[in-house]
Amino acid sequence: MKDWIKAARLRTLPLSLSGIIMGAFIAKWRLYGEGGIWDWRIFALALVVTLLYQILSNYANDYGDGIKGTDAKRATEAEARAVASGKITAKQMGNAVILFSVLSFIATVALLYVAFIPNYMNEFYIFIGLGILSILAAIGYTVGKKPYGYMGLGDIFVFIFFGLVSVCGSYFLFTKSFSWDMLLPGTAIGMMSMAVLNLNNMRDIESDKQSGKNSFALRIGFKNAMIYEMILLQLPLILILLFLGVNGFFQTQNYKVFIVMILMIPLMKIRRKIMAVKNPRELDPFLKQVGIMTFMIAALTAAGLNLFG
User: Fold this and answer.
1) Is residue 3 predicted with pLDDT exceeding 90?
2) What confidence tier does 11 reach under pLDDT thresholds 50, 70, 90?
3) Which domain holds residue 281?
C-alpha cells in the first residue's frame, strides 16, 4: 500500500484541487449576490472527480514512462517511480490505470447527474464528453504510440484541463452559465499548473534528452525554459487582479477582497530562488512550493470574494 500511495504522488493533489476551488467559490459568491443557491453536493463530488483524475494521471504517467524506459534514466532523482524501480509491476500499474479510469468515469457521471439532471440534458451530454476527454488526456500524456507529453504538448493540455476546463467548468456546474471574465482566473490557474509541469521538465531535462522525451523545456533549452518559468509565475496574480478589477472592486475600495495579493511576496522569493538554480536536479523542491502557491491563489481569491466581496 505504501508504494501505491507514493505512486499517487500526493504532493500534486493541491494543484488539481485549485481549479475546482477557484471556479466553485467564484460561483458561490456570484450566486449569493444574485439570490441563487449553491449546491454543496456538486462541490463535494467535483473534489472527488478531480482527485480521481489526478491519481489516474499520476499512475498513467508512472506506467507510460516506466514501460518506455524513461524513468530508468532518473535513478538518481529524489522521487523514484514505482514501475521503473520494480516496486509495482507494469501489469499491476496498467490494471490500476484501468480501474481509476472506470472510477473516474463513474464519479463524473454522478457529479453531472446531480448538477444537470433533469433540467439540463444537453449540458449533461456535453460534460460527459468533456469528462471522457479529461480521462483520455490524463492517460495520453505518456501512454500510447504517440503520447503528447513526448511531443512537447504537455503544457497546452495542462493549461486547458487544469486551468480553463477545471475553473470554467466547475463554475458552469453551479451557475449553468458561462461568463467571459472566468477566463482570467482560469488562465491564472492554468499558468500556475504549467509552471509546475515546466519545473518538472526542467528538472528532468538531461534524462529526458537521453530517453527521447521531447518536453517543451527540452525543445527550447534550459535557459529559455527558465525565462518561460518566470513569465508563468509572474502573470497569474496580475490576471486575478484584472478579474477583481472588472468586477468593480477598484471602485468600491473594498481592499480586503484583494487579500490574495499578499502572495506577491512569497512568489517573488520563489522566483528568485528558482532563477539562482544552476543544476536542474535542484529544482525538485520547488514543484511542491509552486503547487502550494497555486492552491493558495485559489483559496485566498475564494476567501476574499466570499468573506469580503
Assistant:
1) no
2) confident
3) 2-308
